[in-house]
Here is the input.
Amino acid sequence: MTHSFSEFSTNALLKVGDESLLAEYRQPKPMALYAFIWSDDSEAKFIVDGIPVTLPQHSILALTTVQYFQFAEGERLKVYLFNRDFYCIKDHDKEVGCAGLLFFGNIKNPVVHLNEKDRIKFNMLHEVFIDELETKDTIQAEMLRMLMARFIIKSTRLLKAKERFDTKTGDTKTDLLRAFNVLVEDHFRTEHRVQFYADALYKSPKTLSNNFAKLNTGPLKIIHERIVLEAKRLLMYTDKAAKEIAYELGFEDASHLSRLFKKHTSLSPSDFKKQHS
Here is the structure.
């Protein structure tokens, strides 16, 4: 059964239900909505940006609006879909601390694993969600947004614990990585230099590199991976030529994107497109 909330004045939309909410994604298409997909006692299978993803039982997958998603199989799933007008990740990031970690991460799809104690807490939260969706009153929207904030905060805490981020020092390295990821998401089509992002964060490029090295990544690597990911999406799911894609991603010379793409995939953009056509 699907429960929906919509708000005419703001265009806010929230849907909570089972795998039937994913029926329209039997063929790959952009998510368009933020999503949490929660497996219960069996695993589920998807294709995200052309890559097969198996979601283990008792796990939650977070997806952003720009990802191409295809539902392959899964039963007894809990699915949350919502748009920016219902809950803006960036506007609420000071509350929940998720942007650039749970959402806007460029390296991998974040999966939150639930132990038995976590499952009890999340199932209780889910029941409260359903109860509020069935309660039509003047504070329903506020209550639902509060519940979504709680869901995101709990998921973010578990993800941080899983990734073993340093919480004893105020998690400053993680915060820097999150802020960097959000900036990259906003500017990767036009800004390819680390210096731009360092200036925006009031850091030197060397400081960024030193901090990210301790998290087993690097600022230039993050920028390049985001560019290549977008190029893959455009090559797989649109009819745009490699030259057109290069221009869209901020390259005046298509050969520059081609070299970067081949470095990360071992294929030229045209060969990649043929392989995935």
User: Anything to note?
Assistant: Residues 67 and 258 are 22 Å apart (CA to CA). The beta strands are 3-7, 12-17, 29-30, 34-38, 44-48, 51-55, 59-63, 68-73, 78-82, 111-113. DSSP finds ten helices and ten strands in the chain. Residues 172-275 form a domain with the Arc Repressor Mutant, subunit A fold (CATH 1.10.10.60).
